[in-house]
């Protein structure tokens, strides 16, 4: 997302923002189209695959995308906001599962990510050790909450890749 190539002297917060953006939307190795970010994996999903359930599975790419955006919204709300939203709030996710238009859902994910990262950008390095409220009510170090969101994006990017591969009947490693 437009990061400079020279990272010398970057603060810990700047590094976390860079890593958050890479896990969410990093291009990876552009020459070989090998990207592992959430958005790069979503970009490989067709409209037909968006709501399809692989054989033996229960999750769809759509349900994972909605889960990721909802979690990011809740982490942001509780760590940086008023902490009033709950998982059962009817407007937490803009669509019920099975009704999210793919392109609109991706735009919503981008907005959820931008809001979270904007709050992280406002931190100082000293703020990273400060306890903040997690969405389940406990206090956790700020860096831990940020790391959890970063890992969450990467984890679900892999899930999306696997589901897409199963649906395309191409679930294998390509060997050179």
Tell me briefly what this model is.
The protein is mostly helical. The protein has helices spanning 12-25, 38-42, 47-50, 61-80, 102-121, 142-167, and strands at 131-133, 139-141.
Main β-sheet: number of strands, strand sense, barrel status? 2 strands, antiparallel
In CATH terms, the superfamily of one domain is: dinb family like domain
CATH architecture of one domain: Up-down Bundle
Distance between the termini: 29 Å
Assembly level: single chain
Mean residue pLDDT: 90
Rg calculated over all Cα atoms: 17 Å
The sequence of SSEs as H and E is HHHHHEEH
Structural class: mainly alpha
How much beta, percentage-wise? under 5%
* Unreliable spans: 1-5
Question: What's the CATH class of one domain, please?
Answer: Mainly Alpha
Q: Determine the fraction of residues in helical runs and give it as a percent range.
A: 40-55%
Count the helices. How many? 6
Strand arrangement, largest sheet?
1-2
Under CATH, the topology of one domain is which? Four Helix Bundle (Hemerythrin (Met), subunit A)
DSSP strand count: 2
What is the overall silhouette?
A: globular
